[in-house]
Amino acid sequence: MYRDKSFIGIVPARAGSKGIPNKNIININGKPLIQYTIEEAKTSMYLDEILVSTDSHKIAEISKKCGANVPFLRPVELADDTAKTIDVIIHALEELNCLGKSYDYIVLLQPTQPLRKGWHIDDAIKKIIDDKHDDLVSVSEVSEHPILFRTIDQTGRLHNLLNVESTVRRQEFTKYYKVNGAIYINNIRKLSSNTSLNDNTLAYIMDKEYDLDIDEPNDIELLKINTK
Question: What pLDDT, in 10s, does the model give residues 154-200?
């Protein structure tokens, strides 16, 4: 808890993955990917519970060994490529309610962001409460500035992504940030099936060194280097 508010950390980890088979439990430097997130979540001073939402008995067993709770399995219809994360969260909250558990805030921790630390989680929790906000999302400054991004039309002509003059010194570039997927926090009372987590409005800025999204095989090699 933090300032009398309770927090449930939910780690979504379905079995299916097209890019990297069994991605959430692939062994990296001696431990499954999901363990990186669970271990850091366990160091949080403010998370009241860490729950893994999965459709897989194998992921459930691994998660329990790592110290997370898995009191139920996710239904099949919430475990395919079309399932929305918000629906997974709502399902988990409904199941918890049936078990007599309720919380004030949901903290979503995707296992594909393994470099996020426990103190990041706590800093984000303090920020959303101290700023008296209902939703927060972690962001990182982008390395490649969108002022140099272009689209190409059917004739091969370039068009600026931003409607600004791009002949600007790099030192004068406006800072831009991307949603990095590491931390989402939402007031549970304000959640609905229409909630778009990526559109959470309060920013929690993380250094770029902690931003690594495991999406393709090369990302696994980067994680191996960063966790030796």
Answer: 999 999 988 877 777 777 778 899 999 999 999 999 999 999 999 99
Q: pLDDT tens digits for 96-110?
A: 999 999 999 999 999
Residue-wise DSSP of 141-210: E-SS-GGG-EEE-TTS-EEESSSS-----GGGPPP-EEEEEEEEEEEGGG--TT--GGG--EEEE--GGG
Kind plus residue range of the DSSP H or E element containing 127: helix 118-130
Domain at 7-141+178-226: CATH code: 3.90.550.10
Residue type for position 174: T
CA 167 – CA 209 distance, rounded (Å) = 29
Tens of pLDDT, residue by residue over 7-29, are: 999 999 999 777 788 899 999 99
Domain boundaries, the chain: 7-141+178-226
Euclidean distance between CA atoms 165 and 64, whole angstroms? 53
Q: List CB contacts of 208: < 8 A, sequence separation 6 or more.
A: 140, 141, 143
